[in-house]
Amino acid sequence: MVEKYKEQTQFKFIYVRDESHFNFSRLMNLGRENANGEYLMLLNNDTQVITPDWIECHDRTCATARNWRSGLQIII
Fold this sequence. Notes:
Layout: H1 2-7, H2 24-34, H3 54-64
């Protein structure tokens, strides 16, 4: 997924890699600290994309929502 989005030009994509011991909260803060765009999307490292336009749908939801928050469905 990272390689696909690093190469596109429709929006800015930043990938931050951290090799230290896993700590979810620290990693989310690291992502936030490195962000500088209009939107911030934090994903777990096991996120699987099941529809090709997922990020566009998410952006449309955020652009029209009053609180600019959106959630994604978890399918088990």
